[in-house]
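Sample 1 of the test manifest.
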Amino acid sequence: MNKDLKIVSFKGGVHPPKDGKILSKKTAIQTAPLLERYQVIVSQNIGAPPAPVVKAGDEVKKGQLIAEAAGFVSVPLHAPTSGKIEGLIDIPGPMGVPAQAIAILADGKDEWAELAPPIDWRGADAETLKKRILECGIVGMGGAAFPSHVKLSPPPDKKIDYMIINGAECEPYLTADHRVMLEEPEKVLAGAAILGRAAGVKNVVIAVEINKVDAINAMMEKAAEFGVGIVGMKVQYPQGAEKQLIYAVTRRKVPTGALPADVGCIVQNAGTAAAVADAVRSGIPLIERVTTITGEPVVTPGNWRLRLGTPISAALTFCGGVKYEPSKLILGGPMMGFAQRSIEVTVMKNTSGILLLKKSEITQYESNPCIRCGRCIKACPMNLQPTVLSQLTEAGKFEETLKYNVMDCIECGACAFTCPAQIPLVQHIRRAKAEIRNRSKKR
Amino acid sequence: MLLTIILSILALSGLGIILGLAIGFVSKFFGVATDPKVDLVLELLPGVNCGGCGRPGCADFARALVAGEASPEQCPVSSQEAVTQIAQLLGMTVGDLEKKVAVVLCGGDIHQTKVKTLYNGVNDCISAMQIAGGPKSCAYGCLGMSSCARACPFGAIEMINGLAVVHNELCVGCGVCVDTCPRDLIKLVPAEAKVHIYCSSPEKAAVKMKVCNVPCIACRKCVKSGEEGQFEIKGFRVEVNYDNFPGEDIVEKSGCPKNCLLTTAQHLEIERNADKEENAV
């Protein structure tokens, strides 16, 4: 390992001894074959869903605008391939409720639309860069899908001095960002430098967990060229959570209810950085992403470059299908991902992983009483007391949970993971948060 | 031996007398004067501390009554006689009470409404709602995790076949359950209104029929067979107008094709029998 590497961490957290990354971390990124039909879910970003600008029967080219941003916290959407628009349909959505999607019948030619001209980012001003990032539909690709241009435009009274690129990938099983950083280090570094320039920040740091030494070494070679620093982080979940990452890198604590910008930081995902480099240097909009398809039941787990709108069922066939019937399908990582009820859900901008779990890996909630061991308190990265919060919730004392800062919970699930009595701690806390929101709404 | 018995009796009675005197002394010279009316009123109140009046408990309500900050009919639980007695005691006059009961406006039990996912999380409606909107296919129906039944201080809500059913004879109309339902299915209605439309889904009929056997499809048969103003059409569903509710004969007259217009008794019976049929199988 590189001796110059600084290794940092936050306090608390958990690390599963078998994190499942071994399944897919050695396989290079493969590009998925062209499918006959794509169903691009319209609402792929946090904020206002974009407004579709195509109708049934329209011919589109690859990378052509198919839905335009509706409002400031919203990004446009582009066609993943050339072909004919079949229309707006309802498909099973990632949140369990039907979602509107634009269906595209591919014509097989995969012709590019006319792309925006490349920008020489070293000389470009911040506004040009931000505009391009918006036009190419870039969102946070780690999971939250928060529009990147919004993060880059903090209120003018907030002075930003740190741009942190999140390469932690602390979720078990996922290796997509790892492979991107290893195979395309130049792209990630360039993207990081562009993001830094767009935010007017000199201090750009890529933070990577040290279980990705090969990726760190690959980026170290060229880091100086782009003026980007690299720090290593202890392998600990949730190292990649925004507030924990900021603390690990800068030792600044984001106060309750505040945003990273309040402590002068912006956090962007490593995959996002690569997409930004493509958008700015080549004008390519965000129409595909690297996704880890993994889990014990998958025949050949791997990392695939999937176009938006690829059904999960098709993605699984790329990997040779499944060995036996899985018990759970999760989009994202096992800790914070979302369980699905249909394999017709399609890949979105924030689908970092498609994870299948077998029966023995699924928790059945048969919890025992709290034995007051304090492991959840030790594991909580926000320094909360999950056991107290859970007991108050079970007693229905939601007002009192506020005194214990229940709203600070980032729902990482480290407490429930570590609980020897298998108490669904994070689930109780989520309920308390929902009840509190519900009550303040009804009032 | 005899001496020991006599000694212990004497010692204990002596102790009793001394302590009794001490208590008497303290209550005489350090006692806080309370209005004896508060205790009298408290005795007349139901004493279940349900919070239906909007106060922390019956004792606080009694204090507020005596202080003139509240009026007796604010207690939704008390019977007409109890309210009149309290009013007489306090020299107030009260009008007639309108007794209310809660009703869960959903008829989709596990036999009638499809279930879309297996849910093995925390047994609570709000928790279930957070996982992809709950395990039931109908996004507006009763989740059946008995959050309301647990909240009811009178044990008036029974879970039958994964559906909350209110027992009218036990329900006092305190309204505690109304706030616990994340799907807002529970309504407080006049106790006299015996007929309800057991569906709250605003979806189109075609969507509802895919997931449920007993939805209101807004066919308006009930509206036509009833008198003007007894029903309200709200989008794709019909609602009973509880200011001018229809009588029990409307159920037979209208012949609801989806069996969602029912009297409370019929509704309860259907759920009970569905349970029996399953046991028989």
